[in-house]
Amino acid sequence: MTATQINLNGRLTKDPKVDTTGKYPVVYFTLAVAPRYYDEKAGEWKEKQAQFYLCADRRKGNAATARLLRKGMPIKIEGQTSQAVKQDANGNDVREVIININEIDIDLRNIEYLMPQLQEALEQEQISTVAQETPPEPISAEQELYARPPLPTDWPDPAQPGQSHML
């Protein structure tokens, strides 16, 4: 059976959860997708009933996913669908569609969701968020046009006989 490729834009319903019971950690989260349509009679955009998708991030380095994503954050995902069979409280088998993530894009138009999480992740990793270097002085367009890097010193001299001019 082949997996179906899927692309979705939506918002997280709650913070991601990390499952460490297996050999590798898996980050799970639910994405709410509410398709929009234009109602010509009302003259405005409206949202249809939201659909919810269970997503699993099994990629290497998925710890960043768990640290950065938060409830309500708008994201775009790309992945393949798969099915899992679980038992409900009555012992009945329930099939569940899971989207296995290939790529996650954070919607930077709503960056206010990202900044607190990014700051927290940087503090946890003990990475400095402020560069200590002074910015370079601006140069004019004319200076930029004529600015060229120096030639390498190990190039053969074409004036010397016996040296190859091929690099």
From TrEMBL:
The keyword DNA-binding applies. GO terms for molecular function: single-stranded DNA binding. Residues 127-167 are annotated as: Disordered. One of its GO terms (biological process) is DNA replication. Keywords: DNA-binding. It holds the Pfam family SSB. InterPro entries: NA-bd_OB-fold, Primosome_PriB/ssb, ssDNA-bd. It comes from the Bacteria. The keyword Cytoplasm does not apply. Residues 149-159 have a biased composition (Pro residues). This is Single-stranded DNA-binding protein.
